[in-house]
Design brief:
289 residues; alpha+beta; Uridine Diphospho-n-acetylenolpyruvylglucosamine Reductase, domain 2; Uridine Diphospho-n-acetylenolpyruvylglucosamine Reductase, domain 3; Enolase-like, domain 1; 3 domains; five-stranded antiparallel β-sheet; 14 strands; 26% strand
Length: 289
């Protein structure tokens, strides 16, 4: 299908983009990679009168460690993230995630910031960012503000970004030693959205007990889910098979799936349990590396 007509705007700076958002209000949408927005426009599910393309704004594509955080610029392409030596060497959970996003053609255009700002519970990065305890930097008329990722996702396709704000950076606390994570996803075919997926990240203390745990669930609720009960259960325990199995059941209990063409709700809840076992087991295994 062909999208409705719109006015195309191309700012050169973040300040200019924010001013355009203020000027056009709810009729404007930000275009970064466009791999979610453009299909929705073609299906007439999104009808922005103004499309603000931020791809010409310099300085929004990078992957670096700085000030205790892994910092990812909002315009960093999925393919760039996947190829970044820093991600390949130190952040395997992020590598797991980028590997299963759509296909190489889409990853060449899609951006990490757009994946989060779209607010789709079926996207892959939200669960991983929940597991890692990330922060989102939003830039608006009043400057920058930092939003904890657990407060960022409000409801279906809705985030904590205010009308004239743009997501400009993702910050992930650099994990301490003896940390590891993993992301597991089941999809109907390669490149599809997940039927269900689970991200898990663990940090162990010197005695091998779980000091910190993060678990995020994909596409089993109206927004990405942080499995807090499962996280709380893991802390202070040894990450053995029995503990992981109990935590996986708690994560499944926290899921809020609905029946659709991908399967009935109980099937998805069962998937969460199994995928949580795999993600937690991989996370525990990677803490030793």
């Amino acid at each position: 299908m062909i999208p409705p007509s719109f006015e195309y705007l191309r700012p050169n700076t973040i300040t200019e983009a924010v001013k355009l958002l203020q000027q056009h209000g709810d009729e404007a949408k930000i275009l970064s990679g466009g791999q979610s927005l453009i299909p929705m426009m073609k299906l007439r599910l999104a009808r922005p009168a103004y499309l603000i393309d931020i791809n010409r704004i310099k300085g929004l594509s990078y992957v670096r460690e700085e000030g205790g955080f892994l910092k990812i610029g909002a315009l960093t392409r999925e393919a760039e993230l996947e190829a970044a030596p820093l991600i390949q060497s130190k952040y395997p959970i992020i590598l797991d995630t980028t590997h299963v996003i759509a296909d190489p053609q889409i990853r060449n255009l899609a951006t990490v910031g757009g994946n989060l700002a779209h607010g789709d519970p079926a996207n892959d990065h939200p669960a991983t960012m929940l597991a890692l305890g990330a922060q989102v930097v939003a830039t608006g008329p009043g400057g920058e503000r930092t939003i904890p990722i657990e407060d960022f996702f409000v409801s279906l396709f809705s985030t904590a970004l205010e009308q004239a704000e743009i997501l400009t950076e993702i910050r992930i606390p650099i994990p301490p030693p003896r940390s590891g994570g993993g992301y597991f996803k089941l999809e109907r075919k390669v490149g599809d959205f997940a039927t269900a997926a689970v991200a898990a990240h663990l940090t162990l203390d010197s005695k091998g007990m779980v000091q910190k745990a993060g678990i995020g669930l994909t596409n089993v609720g109206p927004k990405p889910i942080k499995a807090r009960k499962a996280e709380d259960f893991l802390r202070g325990k040894k990450a053995d098979a029995a503990t992981i199995a109990q935590a996986a059941q708690l994560a499944a209990d926290e899921a809020q799936p609905s029946s659709d063409l991908r399967g009935p709700a109980e099937y998805k809840r069962g998937l969460v349990k199994e995928l949580a076992k795999r993600a937690l087991s991989r996370a525990a295994e990677r803490t030793g590396k």
